[in-house]
Amino acid sequence: MAFRVGMDVPIVFCTILTLLVKGFVADRELEIINKKCDIPKCNQTHDGQPNLVHIKGTGENDTIHYLWSSIGAPAVILARTTLGANLTVNWKDLLDGTKTGSLSFQPPESVLYSSALMFTKLIEYNDTSDDGTIQSKDARMMTELESLTWQKGTINSTDCSAVLLGKLGDNGTISMKLTGFGKGGRLTTLPHLQYTENSTQLDVTMQNVMNMIYTNYTNARFALEMVVVGRDNKSGTVNIKEDTSIDDQYTPGTFSTLNVRLPDSPLGSYVQWKPVSYVKKGRTMENARHVYEYKLETTRENIDMPQTSIVRAFFSPKEIEQIGALNVSFGITKDGFYKKTNYVSWSIAIGYGDPPEEYISLTVYIVISVGLGIPLLIVVFGGTGVCISKHKEKKRKSLQSN
Ligand SMILES: *[C@@H]1O[C@H](CO)[C@@H](O)[C@H](O)[C@H]1NC(C)=O
Ligand SMILES: *[C@@H]1O[C@H](CO)[C@@H](O)[C@H](O)[C@H]1NC(C)=O
Ligand SMILES: *[C@@H]1O[C@H](CO)[C@@H](O)[C@H](O)[C@H]1NC(C)=O
Ligand SMILES: *[C@@H]1O[C@H](CO)[C@@H](O)[C@H](O)[C@H]1NC(C)=O
Ligand SMILES: *[C@@H]1O[C@H](CO)[C@@H](O)[C@H](O)[C@H]1NC(C)=O
Ligand SMILES: *[C@@H]1O[C@H](CO)[C@@H](O)[C@H](O)[C@H]1NC(C)=O
Ligand SMILES: *[C@@H]1O[C@H](CO)[C@@H](O)[C@H](O)[C@H]1NC(C)=O
Ligand SMILES: *[C@@H]1O[C@H](CO)[C@@H](O)[C@H](O)[C@H]1NC(C)=O
Ligand SMILES: *[C@@H]1O[C@H](CO)[C@@H](O)[C@H](O)[C@H]1NC(C)=O
Ligand SMILES: *[C@@H]1O[C@H](CO)[C@@H](O)[C@H](O)[C@H]1NC(C)=O
């Protein structure tokens, strides 16, 4: 691990782990920086350091940046820039209601692509019919995530990750961990999402967030609302697609992958997940529960944008041409509701480019071929045998009749 302290900004290179694991040089050199706030107003926030984490992946010809923050609604901005681009923060304007322009790259023309994902609402609902989904008859209570008290973030330079922790009620926490990658691969923990040199993983964990005092929901479950935005809609609007595969070797029991795409030319960006969450810290198949997704809303008028977020600081309202909002809920019929473990954890990938696809591995092909092949052989040979004997019989019969 190489620490470099320059311009009072501690810069940490996160490539060591990649090097150890992969044994060769990463496609992008990763750095993680907690952008230093240098104005007096910062003292009003926890420890004088608002959460604005900058993960930077420097490649041969361009840089991918992830800005990760809980100033307002928790959000990640993905930007691809030319190599020389510098992130500029006007802290006064950023902390003063996340004014547009307070977060930018200089020079402005260095930005080649940008999009963002925000988490806007936590929805607690009483699943009256115990089917896992939110229905119009279900009582619900919404919490704007921008209104939570967010603790000082923690950076782990070994795996290039940053955790933002929001407090809810007495003991409740929403933890959001963003991990950057400098090279393609697949995580060792479930659901074994794929990552690329252009993507990050976001793990959302909701612990003890049930609010019985206010809601009295005996059948409480949770849902999250997410909003994605992009600059340009010339290549199309935000869309969602479910890809199914016959192969569940990486995520046992889960045969599909959901992709929310923000198309752009030459490449857009995506949010990808598997419809599975985990109700205990140890992620196992037994602790896996379904994640339902709801209708993707793409009509701007129907989407509530948070009052404050780094997205507002980075994009002017008229720049946002692509927009999509989506709810996802956690849990499945007869699982004992959220209260059974008071815990749910879910992972998604956010990346530049096309979402990685699940390929069927050679092993699975062999298994399928053998599995289908033997009965097929029996049918073919058996069938042929039957045909031959029938034919012979026919011949015999026709000979007899002649
Ligand atoms: C901010 O906090 C630091 C350390 O806690 C302190 O030294 C400094 O005087 C404070 N500045 C203001 C403007 O409150
Ligand atoms: C960078 O650009 C050069 C010249 O266009 C190209 O040969 C090379 O493949 C590019 N590198 C990457 C990682 O895309
Ligand atoms: C970016 O910052 C570096 C180091 O502070 C500086 O040398 C460079 O000129 C800056 N580039 C731009 C485009 O402002
Ligand atoms: C929640 O749902 C259960 C089961 O249908 C019902 O008995 C209970 O009254 C509901 N509670 C509220 C607050 O709606
Ligand atoms: C940082 O990440 C590494 C690798 O995942 C892990 O082994 C280590 O315990 C983490 N450190 C902290 C302080 O969480
Ligand atoms: C919060 O946690 C403490 C200690 O674990 C427990 O005694 C208390 O009942 C919890 N409060 C709520 C509202 O769950
Ligand atoms: C919750 O239930 C308790 C006992 O049934 C009742 O006294 C209380 O008023 C209820 N609270 C709300 C917010 O409905
Ligand atoms: C793209 O966005 C503009 C401005 O929001 C809108 O007028 C236009 O209809 C959109 N185009 C498509 C194809 O959705
Ligand atoms: C998410 O669910 C809440 C509560 O049912 C609803 O108010 C909101 O409009 C939904 N968001 C989207 C994008 O459908
Ligand atoms: C990553 O981004 C670069 C552009 O910088 C692109 O050429 C490459 O295909 C992308 N990789 C993946 C896996 O999408």
Based on the structure given, which CATH architecture of the largest domain is correct? Distorted Sandwich
Number of domains: 2
Bound ligands, each once? 2-acetamido-2-deoxy-beta-D-glucopyranose
Low-confidence stretches: 1-10, 16-23
Please, how many helices?
A: 5
Output the CATH class name of the largest domain.
Mainly Beta
**DSSP summary, beta strand count:** 25
- The portion of residues forming beta strands comes to 35-45%
Largest sheet: 12 strands, antiparallel
Global morphology: globular
Computed CA radius of gyration, to the nearest angstrom:
26 Å
CATH topology of the largest domain, which one? Answer: Beta-galactosidase, Chain A, domain 5
- The run of helices and strands is EEHEEEEEHEEEEEEEEEEHEEEEEEHEEH
Helical fraction equals 10-25%
